[in-house]
Give the backbone structure.
Amino acid sequence: MLRGYFALLFPLILFSMACMDDEAWYDLNVSIQPQADTAQTDTLQYRKPIGVFITHEGNFMYDNASLSYYDIEQKQVYNHVFYNVNHLPLGDVAQSMSLHDSLGYIVVNNSGKIYVINVYNYQYVGKITGLVSPRYIHFISDTKAYVSDLYAKSIAIVNPKTLEVTGSISVDNHNPSFYQHATEQMVAFGRYVFTNCWSYDDKILVIDTEADRLVDSLTVLKQPNSMVLDKYNKLWVACDGGHQGSAYGYDTPGLVKIDAETRTIEKIFSFDLEDGVSELCSNGTGDTLFFLNRHVYRHAVVSESAPEVLIESSYEPGYTGGFYGLGVDPATSEIYIADAQDYIQRGVVYRYSSRGKLIDEFSVGIAPGSFCFKLARQ
Amino acid sequence: MPIRYAFYLLFCLAAAIPASGQGIVDSVFSLQPVAISSARLFTKEEAGTKETRVDSLVLLEKINLSLSDVLAENTTVYIKDYGRGALATASFRGTSPTHTQVSWNGLNINSPMLGMVDFSLIPVYIVDELSLQHGAASVSEHSGGLGGHIAIDNNVNWNNTLSGRYYQGLGSFATFDEFAQINLGNKKLQSKTRAYYNYSKNNYPFINKQQGTIDPRTGEIVNPTAENLDADFAKKGFQQEIYFKPASHIVASARVWGQDAHRSIPNVLSYEGSDTTYKKNRQNDRTLKGVVDGNYYGDAFRVKWKSGVDYQQLLYVLKIKNGAQPEQQPVNSGSTMLSQVNELKLEYDLLPSIRIKASADANYFNISTQDSVTHLGYREERMEYSIYGGLYFSLTHKLNLSLELRKDWLPSTLTPLIYQAGFSYKPFVQHELVVKTSVSRNFHNPTLNDLYWQPGGNPNLLPEQGYTLEGGLDYALIGRNKKLETQLSAYYSDIDNWIQWLPNIKGYWEAQNLRNVLSRGIELNVKASMEVAHWQWSAQGCYALTRTTSTEAIHQIHGSEGNQLPFIPAHSGNALLSADYLGFYLHYQYQYIGVRNMLNSNYETLDDAFPFYRLYALHLSGISVGKDLKLHRLGLGAELKVSNLYNETYRNVLNRFMPGRSYTLLLKLRF
């Protein structure tokens, strides 16, 4: 009798097993997607952003980076825009996004590539592959852009039209002690591009965009992580100062003001040793700086006094997570703060007025890191 | 689909074969299930606690695999693995990988640096016995097993004079296995020598849904067919065991296990480098472990002494190639870990119904880790001491009691006195039914990386500590040709100071005591076997219901309270069914893992769903068919194993596709 049960058990279990369907899971999990933007404006003088893209790093090695889009007028957020529209995951660690005409270039760091989308209908257009560990893209012309890189020891030259890598600019200083230079953000001044070297480094490199060659470098504080050029052609650099126990050293973090023309340091605003200054950006007119140092700080570029806290973080002083990204609307100076929370749940974006009044907040993806403002069609 | 019907028919046919078949029962590879007896179900030492032993059938079924496969497919332990041959860590009763203590012949082999064990690096070849001490039961072995303890042991057959075995495996994706073992000895001295080699190119094909290109004909985005590149792995090793029995009450042994493992760690599937621009990750794990012990077995008094050394070396390199530039190494990290363990254990039977145990441990650790590129690292040398006492009491023939106490002394850390107190009650003399319950306190000290890793180690971390209440029912039915054994248990653990790593404002990750966690659940283990004429049938399975949640919001973060912790499935289960007939056998393995969330907050919205933050439920089947036969003293066998029988597309970690149906041919020789 018992043997009969066993004999039944085998085929019953076998019969019921093949029930996973990967394709079905993909189709089942598409959330709402934005409508394609068709509205046009002919007001060239008033180019007010109509939306902002938010890139999310996701969890390192889990290939779950994502892209959100926030409609500024409607106060509506659309998450996983790239995936929902294209049925294609974005990749691993979406580091930054830059616009060029109607195209958005999303730099996906650990996927070694840059995805290109149409920013008005969010559809996939193409990709630039064959990169080592790309961080940011900076457009020199319609046919030339630079891509900074964490590990390549060079800046890749790409053609945004053909989406091909056309060359590279070596930035290897052959330092036997540390792996340098890892290039990060890029800021244009005339024919030159400044790029900061964050990882175990203290240099700002100067690239001649006509010769595609490294021509100069400046030493700032340890670990410069972000830069911005103000209305007076002063290059501001945020440096985190390194960390305790680092063989490279551990100095006070600071905000460094450099004259872009003469490439000389004019002033340094120092912070406490345990502070971490990052995510430096400016308003549209280039007269006010904003950055993160646990809280959101504001600093008028002409001010001689220390930067002030504008928006206070609600996290306790000992908490390690929290505010992670910062963006400022170039037209309204509204401030967008990306709160990564504990990095293992979806983050939150807070939208504040330029005076620090909360306007909106919404849930986004994991580890929101950068903002990219979209203008209306012309 | 057709293959499913074919197997269905096959099994129906097998079941229809008359039970009174003719022939000689071949026992060359016959499986010896773990004996069930009331003595085992109702021992003083296990009063109130739960221990499960993995059946020898399972160990033979998975002889050419890793311990991670055995644990995942045949126990209630959830294994989080990153692919074939890749890192595989255990979550026992919903706890973190560092909360499972692992011993090899009594030597704790958790990495003192990482606190956990990579089970993919332990081949089943070196395992004779595998047992799991769930929750409170681990207090008798070691502190820190908030989830439990896994014991890997070897045993000796004093009747052996000369025997051995040689297995050769050939499988899909260029997978090769070689294993040889020779056992020599007499009634006083025995030697067991094993050597093995395992390699897989692991280059299985799959549809890469993490990449896409536009089809020029249709304009649609299409996913390419890809090969699992840079995922090869290899292990080679040996194990030597010497057993010496100068007198019937004195046994000494010495065991050494050495292994050299190399593996590539593949890039994420979305990575699109090129032939001249790429990243490659490689990791080498080397270990040499040795343990010697001496045991005196008196009538009432027993002394056990043990000393061991565990040397582990880990090298991780990230290589990049950028066009014409020479290859560079942005990461080159090396770690060496030396543990020296000494234990003296005494047992005394005060009365036939009362046993007392006491032990003292003195352990030395020396850790060095350094990245030659960033020059970050740390060195740490430390001594740790532990004393343990246990009282086991058969109050009546129906009631057993146990009380265990342990106290550890660690540098710069105040540790609590931990304990386990439990009882087992057997209400019916004629029935093998045992009711158990226990209460325990345990703690887990932060790992050395938690304390000292550069950057982010936090020397101010407090130990994770908690209380566990558990209970269960064990039942066995032992007939002349049939056996049934079930263990049903439930547990409730409250763990404080749970350690989590988070990025800080400087950008690097830092360890913190973040939260209070509640882990509770139900475990069910069932084994049944029967023998009818020349047929041997057996079925065994496990089910685990695991609910592990954070009881408070992390720094007021909305959504981190009350949710299942990431990567821990609420439901998991497995089954192994086997039919043996005159040396022919058919084994069917089934594994189920429920939905696993990636996030602290797991809401049921589409924005929180697959494929970004959730792994869907997994159903996997495998089958083995083989024949063993005996030619004089020589045993021969051949087995064909089919994994992922239904060729399912699935992922074990987020967005890493696992192989489809694969095959392994195993040839066996034994004498």
Remarks:
- Chain A is about 5% helix and 45% strand.
- The mean pLDDT of chain A is 90.
